[in-house]
Amino acid sequence: MPELDEERVHVARCEAALRAMIDGARFNVVVGEHVAGDRYSAERLGRHLKSLAKELQEDAGGPPFFGRLDFGSGADAGEHRGRRYHIGRRHISGEGGGPPLVIDWRAPVSRAFYRAGARDPRGVAVRRRFGWAGGTLTGFEDERLDRGEELGAASRIMAAEIERPRVGPMRDIVATIQPEQDDLVRADLAESICVQGAPGTGKTAVGLHRAAYLLYAHRQRLERGGVLVLGPNRAFLGYISAVLPALGEIDVEQTTVERLLARGPVSGRDGEAAARVKHDARMAEVLHRALYGRVRRPTGPIAVPDGSYRWRIPEEEFRRIVDDTRREAPPYGVGRERVTARVVDAVRRRAEARGRTTGTAWARTVTRAVRPFVDEVWPAVRPEEVVAGLLGDPAALAGAAGGILTAEEQAAILWTRPPRTFRSARWSAADAVLLDEVAGLLERPDGYGHVIVDEAQDLSAMQCRAVARRSEYGSITVLGDLAQGTTPWAARVWPEHLAHLGKPEARVVALTTGFRVPAAVVELANRLLGALEADVPPTRSFRSDGRLRVRQAPDLRSAVVEAVRDALRHEGSVGVIAAAADAGTLVAALRDGGVPAAAVTADADGNADGNTGGNTGGDVEPAGAAPAGAGRNIGGGAAPDVAGPARVTVVPVTMAKGLEYDHVVVAEPAAIAEAEERGLNRLYVALTRAVSRLDVLHSRPLPPQIDVTDFRPLPSRTGVPGSRPLPSQIDVPDPRPLPSRTGVPGSRPLPPQTAGRPR
Ligand SMILES: Nc1ncnc2c1ncn2[C@@H]1O[C@H](COP(=O)(O)OP(=O)(O)OP(=O)(O)O)[C@@H](O)[C@H]1O
Fold first, then answer.
1. Residue 745, annotated as binding a ligand
2. Ligand 1 site: residues with CB under 6 angstroms?
3. Which parts of this chain are annotated as the region Disordered (predicted)?
4. 613 marked ligand binding residue
5. Ligand 1: distance of its center to the CA of 227 in Å?
6. 236 CA to centre of ligand 1 in angstroms
7. Ligand 1 mean position to 671 CA, how many Å?
8. How far is the CA of 174 from the centre of ligand 1 (A)?
9. What is the Cα–Cα distance from 16 to 13, expressed in whole angstroms?
10. Does the annotation flag 290 for ligand binding?
11. Average pLDDT score over residue span 741-750
């Protein structure tokens, strides 16, 4: 039988086995409800089995496997000698307890699929990649690693997967994880890592796959604490929300830092000066002082009535208890309990010396009697009281911030009209960070087993501390790009940031091969790097396809409508990215032009993406005239079933981080660049959202760094083994001749490898 037919037979066996697994899981749901010993276990088991049944059901339509490993007969194959494994998104059990039909991509043996190469075959004789179209197996590609064959980036199947137009939410990348990405995905649970990755290098993908991997490899250890994924805003979270469920992980909490810290609605706003101070690491010390400033030295003895006795703890002893407890520096709330317990103990010693029996009831009564004395010296407080007490009272602020904040800084954060009580305070997004800091001083928050922080460069020192508090006993994966930092407090180097995150020892790894943005677009964006005050290596694109078009247009609005109409002739999502102030008019222009567009709007909960005024996280508002599917058009995802209008989303550039669209129209770069202090970083983000095509439209002069009159594609730095640095299509006014990479002016380079990746 031809090999492809044999594989199709295997597909059919997998489908049958999967159906049997679904039936089995459903049966177990029913049985599980009766077999578990107690209600708690019954509930847990039921929940587990139901979600398993649901996952399997939802998964049933997808390709059951994407790769195959045939191990050779050499000693390096170890226990896998002569064996063959199909690798897929999830394990599929063999019929009747036989060997599994598909091995989970996270299993130890699957590692060779991602890491084996001609130089280090890891015992693998043949690596096979499968091509699928609409659930049908269409072909495969073999690499005879035992004969020194390796396609690398020349694999057609891999290139097609990476270059596939984006429709719908972000997909998993299990079939094409690159070796350097795999290294990060499978890093040990105990290890904290920081991935400095240029745009589109797969940081987010790596983080999500790492979450799935860790849950697979350390499920029991992570079950209690859980895994937390933090992203910049809701549009981003919407875009990535399908990846983990597709990998069978539905219990991962995905949220923004703002939501994680939220104690109530954000109703106040800060000016930039105030927000900068509130987000500064020095505020931690100010708050610490403000809180512990409430602890007072005892000014008298304690007298506790106890039946016919009256016990007395002298002032000196009480003072020693308070001083000792302060020195031990426990969380404030614990300190309060410790002082109380120590005073009760001191009373107990005296009572027992007089022959009193001191049981639980005695301790309860005495504790009640001691409380008022402890309240005097170590009062119970709420975070809101502490922060309001500081921001609403110049003297209190001066007391806590003296020698830490300058007079101007203190003036910047003082409330001009303090609320009557802390209960009526209007808290800003930055205040939420201060409240969380105080809450963390009062009581340690529950920690997570592992925290993944995306777009971490934008976090402030105080936000980092909030994350650190939640991962004190766990590890973290920090994902970010210093060049994409846009908040006023964005990191310029990693070590300091990692220290604020509580993991100064984290390994910093750079990813530089971009999988999203085509080479020509990358080269344009790279030109901004010198102006971004970030010491990061330039991106090298894996992709030689794609198109860049730069156009001057006196009437920008009509040019945008025209460009979008043109974009809609191609498959995939379309994103129009503009300065926040211009987004509304572009939505209107598109709708007037008969091109309904969805619009990314701000989150209600605040300060997600560097706009200190709050309201910068995002959501997607469906296009007015769009069909029902448009509402699902979160971030980069066009609804899968749409044929036109709902594929277009207008994104204020402040919301574009982490998103991607097949075709991007960037409108008026100069307006983006001048809208904020780190406007060029923002422009860098905007220019790197395109998967296949980028139109840059401008009516005003372009920022000099990307002025196309001087635009010449740089020699390819692709450097991806086996890749073909064919220039992407570049369409700019009056481009200078392409520089030669073979020495002949205007000549186009020949790909080093012509086999395997036809276009
Ligand atoms: N190994 C891979 N195989 C296939 N696609 C990949 C791979 N790595 C990344 N991608 C794709 O490239 C795109 C960019 O990835 P991702 O969003 O994770 O990058 P990023 O580094 O977080 O980018 P940014 O900093 O711009 O947000 C995504 O569509 C992702 O699926």
1. no
2. 161-162, 170-171, 173, 176-178, 181, 197, 199-205, 481, 484, 515-516, 658, 660, 688
3. 602-632, 701-759
4. no
5. 21
6. 13
7. 27
8. 12
9. 5
10. no
11. 31
Question: 173 C-alpha vs ligand 1 centroid, how far in Å?
Answer: 8
Q: Which residues contact 487 (CB under 8 A, 6 or more apart)?
A: 458, 459, 460, 609, 610, 678
| Helices and strands in the chain, H and E counts | 26, 23
Amino acid at the residue 536: V
- Specify the ligand 1 atom closest to the Cα of 657: 27
CA 636-642-643 angle, to 5 degrees, is 115
> Which residue minimizes the CA distance to atom 15 of ligand 1?
202
Q: Two tokens at 612?
A: 């200190």
Query: 205 CA distance to ligand 1 centroid (A)?
Result: 6
* Span 451-476, average pLDDT: 96
Query: Which atom of ligand 1 has the smallest separation from the CA of 171?
Result: 31
Q: In 528-597, at which residue ranges do the beta strands (DSSP E only) sit?
A: 540-541, 547-552, 574-578
Question: Cβ neighbours of residue 134 under 8 Å, at least 6 residues apart?
Answer: none
The angle that helices 282-292 and 429-442 make with each other, rounded to 10 degrees, is: 50
Ligand 1 centroid distance, CA of 203 (Å): 6
Q: State pLDDT tens for residues 178-226.
A: 999 999 999 999 999 999 999 999 999 999 999 999 999 999 889 888 9
Q: Whose CA is nearest to atom 24 of ligand 1?
A: 199
Query: 621 CA distance to ligand 1 centroid (A)?
Result: 25
Pocket test for ligand 1, best of 157, 204, 573, 657 (most atoms within 8 A of CB): 204
- Long-range pairs of 246-249 with CB within 8 A, sequence gap ≥ 24: 246/59, 246/62, 246/89, 246/171, 246/172, 247/89, 247/172, 247/174, 247/208, 247/209, 247/212, 248/55, 248/59, 248/89, 248/90, 248/212, 249/211, 249/212, 249/215
> Contacts by 675-680 with C-beta closer than 8 Å and gap 24+?
675/579, 675/580, 675/581, 676/486, 676/610, 677/488, 678/485, 678/486, 678/487, 678/488, 678/490, 678/610, 680/528, 680/531, 680/532, 680/705
Which atom of ligand 1 lies at the shortest distance from residue 208's CA? 18
E runs forming strands in 481-518: 507-511, 513-514
Amino acid, res. 65: F
181 CA: nearest ligand 1 atom? 1
pTM value surpassing 0.90: no
Q: Supply the angle between the helices 519-526 and 679-687 in degrees, to the nearest 10.
A: 170
For residue 304, the surrounding DSSP H or E stretch is strand 302-306
Which phi and psi (to 5°) does residue 599 adopt?
Answer: -130, 135
- CA 34-37-38 angle, to 5 degrees, is 100
Residues 453, 472 contacting (CB under 8 angstroms): no
Quote the CA–CA distance of 524 and 708 in Å, as a whole number: 9
Q: In angstroms, rounded to a whole number, what is the distance separating the alpha carbons of residues 497 and 127?
A: 41
Cα separation, 664 vs 648, whole angstroms: 10
Q: Which helix (H) or strand (E) holds 277?
A: helix 272-278
Taking phi over 0 as left and psi of -120 to 50 as alpha, with beta for the rest, 437 belongs to alpha
Ligand 1, pocket-test mutation among 173, 233, 684, most atoms within 8 A of CB = 173
The model's pLDDT over 130-171, given as tens digits with 9 standing for 90+, comes to: 999 888 999 999 999 999 999 987 888 988 888 877 777 888
Q: How far, in Å, CA of 631 to CA of 629, rounded?
A: 6
Q: Whose CA is nearest to atom 3 of ligand 1?
A: 176
Question: Counting atoms of ligand 1 from 1, which one is nearest the CA of 207?
Answer: 18
CA separation for the pair 248, 243 (Å, rounded): 9
Q: Are 140 and 147 in contact (CB under 8 A)?
A: no
Residue 621 has pLDDT above 90, yes or no: no
